[in-house]
Structure formats: structure tokens, C-alpha cells
Design goal:
By secondary structure, this protein is of the alpha+beta class. It is about 35% helix and about 15% strand. It has helices spanning about 15-30, 45-50, 125-130, 210-220, 245-255, 260-265, 270-275, 280-295, 300-315, 320-330, 335-355; strands at about 5-15, 70, 95-105, 110-115, 135-145, 150-160, 160-170, 180-185, 235-240, 245. The chain has a 10-stranded antiparallel beta sheet. The longest helix has 19 residues, at about 280-295.
Length: about 350
């Protein structure tokens, strides 16, 4: 991969591309709010000085224009990057996204985006994570040759919060006397099990490109092939603001790629819909959801999760409930075909309830 850029940010989510696209759409339009948590504390107190003290003024929510699915060829080859470090996000609402699937084991969606936050948690990613629920968003930052120093990061967002960040950053240079800062926030993730403990490392060695490579290999990913034109992705979606099909229409029309399992389930949708009365709906959806929580959550979280979903349905937020259920199912460990079939059936049942 050519490294003629300043910063490359990308993420991985164990969901199909349309579910990820839907999460970005809802987050963009204010459907979710990130959790309020403390900023990750840096080593040597550098971020505290950068962020400063006091509370931030409240900014009224702005309704962003919806995303569209742009035609193939709308982006040049190569990853979506910030070419220069000084690109601080003017026109950020028009930044493109690219979703590629499948990658890794189990199959994930690769998300290419621009994160204009230099240090600390990204509000955009926290909002998307809130839309994804319990499904983890694994995020990387890698600096290229146009960066005057270096910036290497690994982070995990879950349920609207930044739960792990491990990063090394040198804003101005990479010489022996360069001033490095490091972040070691949250509990170590299982993907770090083969890495040294950050506490025993210098700021420059808390996160390195080699460590990033080790994490990606643990995910079943070959880092040097991720962004190549012949990487062999079955599905790629380019999302942005421009001439294309509105994302909401794209999802509703079924123009997106659906797995063979989901297609088979949907083929019998009309027959299933005619047979589903209110009692049958309640019994079947309860069975599907109980199976999902038993597969994905510890016992103490089963009832609270189901209560939250029931409240969401009672308030009429069928779309939000479906996103929450889909995220839970994809978090589980059952075979992918079984989970996809459950998601497809839930969509049918939720549509009946919402009609």
C-alpha cells in the first residue's frame, strides 16, 4: 500500500454492510446519543493539557442530510485517508465512507472513514457505536509519510462508549529526542493478549505498526491486502453526499446484497405473514429473542435487555428495536447462517407489528 497520506483511520465490525450503513445513517441523523464518560487519561498528562479544563458549551443538534449509495468508481483506488494533517474536518458532513465485506474470521465489514479527532474519543464513532449496541467497533489509526511525526492507535467502541484505547503519538517528529505521548485507557482487550503490557513500555512503544499487524492477524486479516483493488470483497458500498440512490431507499428496495440464507427466508415472507396473528407473533418473537440473549449475553443481562427492547417496541420505535436485536444476534456465537436467518425472520415479524 502506498503511504502518501497523513492519517488513515478504519474500523472493523462483525455485521453485514447494510446493518453498518444503517447505523451510520441513524447516528448521523441524531438517532442515538453517545454515553458520557471520562476522557481516556494519557500517560504523562499530555492530553489533559491539550483538552484543557471546564465544560464544553452545548451545541444544538443539526439534522444532517441523509447518506446516499454512490456509483462504483466514485472514489479513487486506495484507502480513504486524510492527505494532510491540517485537514481538521471542514466539510466533515460530506466525507465519504466505504464499506467492504467480508474480511477476517469471523466475517466482518471494513469501514473506511475520516476521523478528524486528533486525540481522545470520537463523538461520531461513539454515536455509531450507540447505534450498533453491544457489537464492538474495532478501530485503528495509522500514519503515513505525510505525517510530520507519527500516530498509531487501537481502540474499541461498544454500546456508545470508548471502552479501550491504546495509542502512541509524536506530533512533530520521530527522532530519538522526539516528544511522544501515549494513551492506555480502559481494560486490555482479548486481541491484545499477545502484546506486552503498556505499563512497562515507553510512550513510543505503547502502540506500534507491528502491534497493529499482530492484532489484525489475530482477526484473520492480512494487513497488506486490505486496501488493494483485487482484495476480493463480495460487497462494497460507497456512501456519501452526492448523486446516488438515497440509502434509506436502497435498504427498503432490497437493492443491497442479501445472503442466500436470508433470501430463502424472505421468499416465503408472504405465506408467513398471512399465518402470523398477534399471539403467534408474540410467541415466535419471544423465542427468537430469548435464544439470542442466551447465545450472546451472560445470564444476569437477559431480563434487562429484553425489558429494554419491550419498552422500545411499546414506544413505537420498531426500527430502533430491530437494530438493537440485529446487533445482539450478530454478537452471538451461533453459525452465521442461523443468525442471518433469525435476523431475516425478526425483520418480517417486526414489520407485521409495525404495520
Amino acid at each position: 500500500m502506498e503511504e502518501d497520506f497523513a492519517v488513515l483511520d478504519f474500523a472493523l465490525v462483525e455485521l453485514p454492510p447494510l446493518a453498518v450503513a444503517e447505523a451510520f445513517q441513524r447516528a448521523r441523523q441524531g438517532g442515538f446519543q453517545p454515553k458520557v464518560e471520562d476522557e481516556p487519561a494519557p500517560k504523562k498528562g499530555l492530553l489533559a493539557r491539550l483538552f484543557g479544563g471546564g465544560s464544553k458549551p452545548k451545541v444544538p443538534a443539526i439534522q444532517m442530510p441523509g447518506l446516499a449509495v454512490l456509483p462504483e468508481g466514485s472514489l479513487p483506488e486506495g484507502p480513504i485517508t486524510r492527505l494532510v494533517l491540517g485537514d481538521m474536518g471542514f466539510g466533515e458532513d460530506k466525507d465519504p465512507l466505504r464499506l467492504s465485506h467480508p474480511i477476517g474470521t469471523p466475517a466482518r465489514t471494513l469501514i473506511e472513514f475520516r476521523n478528524h479527532v486528533e486525540t481522545g474519543p470520537s463523538e461520531m464513532l461513539m454515536k455509531v457505536s450507540a447505534a450498533l449496541g453491544a457489537v464492538e467497533m474495532i478501530v485503528f489509526r495509522y500514519s503515513g509519510t505525510r505525517h510530520p511525526g507519527a500516530d498509531f492507535g487501537f481502540a474499541v467502541y461498544r454500546d456508545g462508549a470508548l471502552v479501550r484505547m491504546r495509542a502512541s503519538r509524536s506530533p512533530e517528529g520521530m527522532e530519538d529526542d522526539a516528544e511522544w505521548s501515549a494513551v492506555d485507557h480502559g481494560a486490555p482487550h482479548i486481541l491484545e493478549s499477545g502484546l506486552p503490557d503498556p505499563d512497562g513500555l515507553s510512550a513510543a512503544d505503547v502502540m506500534t505498526p507491528e502491534m497493529q499487524g499482530d492484532i489484525m492477524e489475530a482477526l484473520g486479516i492480512a494487513p497488506d491486502r486490505m486496501f488493494l483493488p483485487d482484495a476480493g470483497y463480495q460487497t462494497q458500498l460507497i456512501l456519501g453526499i452526492g448523486a446516488g440512490q438515497p440509502l434509506d431507499e436502497y435498504i427498503e428496495s432490497g437493492a443491497g446484497v442479501i445472503s442466500a440464507t436470508m433470501a430463502q427466508v424472505q421468499a416465503g415472507a408472504d405465506e408467513a405473514d398471512n399465518e402470523a396473528d398477534n399471539e403467534g407473533w408474540e410467541e415466535e418473537i419471544t423465542t427468537l429473542l430469548v435464544t439470542a440473549v442466551e447465545d450472546a449475553l451472560p445470564p444476569e443481562d437477559h431480563v434487562p435487555w429484553l425489558n429494554d427492547l419491550t419498552l422500545q417496541l411499546e414506544e413505537g420505535d420498531v426500527e430502533g428495536a430491530m437494530i438493537k436485536a440485529r446487533a445482539l444476534i450478530n454478537q452471538g456465537g451461533r453459525p452465521m447462517a442461523e443468525r442471518e436467518a433469525n435476523v431475516a425472520r425478526l425483520e418480517q415479524l417486526f414489520a407485521i407489528r409495525g404495520a
